[in-house]
Amino acid sequence: MIPRAIRSAAAASFLLLACVAGHAEPVVAQRFMVVAAHPLAARAGYDAIRRGGNAIDAAIAVELVLGLVEPQSSGLGGGGFLLHYSARDAKLEAYDGRETAPARAAPGRFLGADGRPLDWPDAVVSGKSVGVPGLLRLLELAHRGHGKLPWASLFEPAIKLAREGFPISPRLNALVAADRFLALDANARRYFFLPDGKAKPAGTLLKNPEYTRVLARVAAGGADAFYRGEIAREIAAAVRSHKRGPGDLVEADFSAYSAKQREPLCGAYRRWKVCGMPPPSSGGFAVLQILGILERFDLRALKPDSVEAAHLFAESGRLAYADRNLYIGDPDFVRAPLAALLEPRYLAARAKLIDPLHSMGRARAGDPGGVAASYGLAEPLELPATSHVSIVDAEGNAVALTASVEAAFGNRQMVRGFFLNNELTDFSWVPEEDGKPVANRVEAKKRPRSSMAPTLVFDEKGKLTMVIGSPGGHSIINYVALTIVNVLDWGMDIQQAIDAPRMGSRNGPTELERGTKAERLAPALERMGHSVRIRPEASGLHGIVRTATGWAGGADSRREGVALGD
User: Fold this and answer.
1) pLDDT tens readout for residues 61-115
2) Where in the chain is the domain with CATH 1.10.246.130?
3) Which CATH code, of 1.10.246.130, 3.30.565.10, 3.30.56.10, 2.60.40.10, is assigned to 283-327+335-374+504-535?
4) Most buried among 44, 100, 182, 333, using CB within 10 Å?
5) Dihedral over Cα of 192, 198, 202, 205: its sign
6) How far is CA 32 from CA 8, 194, 506, 541, in A?
7) pLDDT per residue over 509-538, tens digit each?
8) Measured between alpha carbons, how far is 287 from 281 in angstroms, rounded to an integer?
């Protein structure tokens, strides 16, 4: 990996992450910080704050640009989760913009005629996988509560880039060239491919007039311009006419959709308070469980790259993912015993299941209060094409926003210049197991479980200490928890913590990041009974940590992100 490090001095004391050889240092700033997955998107957020905007304004400007320049990861056709911290009144809010299943959705949605789960392409690359997008309702709800700049002004950077064009990045080019389904969609084929069928090369200026027009309509008319009328009708029609597998989305599903404010899920970790998203995301819950189990061990006595550390982190992950997979679903349909599952005595009992010398292999879900018998267990597919944005503004307000279309390029249908999601494949495909309903089964108007984990950390005095999140599908939970441990327990700066080797378990193999020092741990872990899988990791962590003089930002060298600040 080529690390990304800092500082391009410019007239506006502009700090930029750039590729250099050697160890990357975090970007440092005194007043504010924006960290996002693409330089053009980060710049849009940076400029919004420089114009007098706040963290919410910046997040909206960033995400609208990401939908253009990083369309494989997030956009108007998807959804997301947002945490907002207001420095003035020390108030934390959670916004749920998760997609919903259509009103006609039934539990057997992803089962074939033989009653068995569909093959991957038949489920994902189809109209069946598309949920009602939630992103614009989420952004509008957050802006109504906290935005300072006019709504329409936040669309201007994305509109300009879509109209005038942006250069295709090497990463976008590689993903387009490698995708075997993308060219099947006529709109995507015209947009991304040359007449000879090859992907347009990196550096090609890509213009998106259809996206320009959609943004202009939503800028003028609010999210209703997307959820009511022509755009909603066109999306629904595209889903129902999908050639590989028609879906059942209708215009009424759009008009019925609403983003929701939920109570953030917070817990103690040593002397800090860690806060994340509640269900339907499992991210906040599972991160808190991993940390709560690890709290029973003296991590500071261990080296971050030691076998002992990898063993503890993997075993903690097994236990947390076991509970996550059994209990967590849309809270409007499933009542998970969150308080009992995060109760210190329960976590202490779970920690005692960890043998310091031998892996437990596969963990079983716990039973904190007689609830376990209510559900069956079936794990869904969850893919890593997502994007995370971390922002702290000049007043100390903060946003952690994780947004997604699920797989790279979603269900591979491009409508009006953006991709539709395949988020419904985040539901468990098997609706029942051993005669018990699965908590995350498909149901009409239900939100599929997610692993997205936008996270804020506070110190013992209540001061904001850290903003963090990542893409990565199921692995988001491990990525975020490990980065928090890297900073809080092992004293890494935010860039070191993000660039450190990934390791962990999702209650399957113990996964070690290919091409890093973590690979060397495999033989010793195998002797402890771990089944080890060495693989590349698709994290895209973007984080901010408070310093004595301001803020330090870090962007994941595994992707194209940058940190910008003043």
Assistant:
1) 999 999 999 999 999 999 999 999 999 999 999 999 999 999 999 999 999 999 9
2) 283-327+335-374+504-535
3) 1.10.246.130
4) 44
5) negative
6) 17, 41, 35, 18
7) 999 999 999 999 999 999 999 999 999 998
8) 11
